[in-house]
Amino acid sequence: MNLRRTDLNLLTVFDAVMREASVTRAAEKLGMSQPAVSNAISRLRVLLKDELFIRTAHGVRPTVKALHYAGQIQRILDQVTLMLSETEAFDAARSERTFNLVLGDYGEMVVLPALMQYLDEIQAKITINVLSPRQFMRADALRKGTVDFILGYEPMAASDIKNELVIEESLVSLARIGHPIVKESLTLDQYVSVPHVVIDWPNSRGSMVDQQLRSLSLQRQHRMRVHSFFDMPRVVATTNMVCTVPSQMAHQFAVSHNLVSFPVPIPDTKQSFYLIWHSSFEGDPGLIWLKNVISGMLENAFPPESSLP
């Protein structure tokens, strides 16, 4: 193939059609006419020797070969964008950029309100898209550029994925006021004997608490498993179950659901949080700015332990 005779703008068209799953919407996004986009796809079909996109009742769907090319083309376009952006400083107050984040329950509760408040204060036109962890907390979402940052509980083990430990937060337990066993604290034996509502962790190791209990040859009662931390306080407020969550979440749940907090009777029980991104974006001024903002918010998020109810 003679690269000098190849129109590299075709890659931008491919990426837009891939993202939008529609020739019409891709044309609108690119500021092109629909026939011009269709013509570009026809040229790509000849160039790549594949149908690439098949018409459906609702738009188009990619072929297997198109899916194979999608990640490579996205990385090429990201690298070109990054190369051009490195010559410019990121001005958050003037930028109209969209950032796609996977934050999970913790990030949505602790980071997101503070981030949006900060964007309001600087009158930024930045858009934040918060994506589902169960669908997008994956390395391939970072590789494809679908996600800019993930806030995760553990690092991702891949050579092209970057992980930064941003905070280690103490875990705190919660119970309803008037709980028959919980007073100001629980012994370790009491802690494992009371019924717990826990997160249904996607990994086989379970939570940090369960890992530490196993090291002591102990196991707590998993009376109820839920998919979200936000389900926990409602259950705890109306039952004799207890839950264990990061301290900042415990502070907010205790206030919003009239719960009492008590320390986890296991020494140094902390939850780590990692910011995770793809290595190809390391020089992106916008992502560097956002990483610094989120890291700073996490470092300043915690109330004094004495302020917990």
Automatic annotation (TrEMBL):
Q: Which family does it belong to?
A: Belongs to the LysR transcriptional regulatory family.
What is the protein name for this chain? HTH-type transcriptional regulator LeuO
Stored InterPro entries: LysR-type_TF, LysR_HTH_N, LysR_subst-bd, WH-like_DNA-bd_sf, WH_DNA-bd_sf, YidZ_PBP2
Q: Where does the record place the HTH lysR-type domain?
A: 6-63
The superkingdom of the source organism is Bacteria
| Biological classification of the source | Bacteria, Pseudomonadati, Pseudomonadota, Alphaproteobacteria, Hyphomicrobiales
* Pfam families membership: HTH_1 (PF00126), LysR_substrate (PF03466)
Q: Which organism is it from?
A: Pseudovibrio axinellae
Q: Which UniProt keywords apply?
A: DNA-binding, Nodulation, Repressor, Transcription, Transcription regulation
UniProt-listed PANTHER family: HTH-TYPE TRANSCRIPTIONAL REGULATOR LEUO, HTH-TYPE TRANSCRIPTIONAL REGULATOR LEUO-RELATED
Instruction: State any single GO MF term.
Output: DNA binding
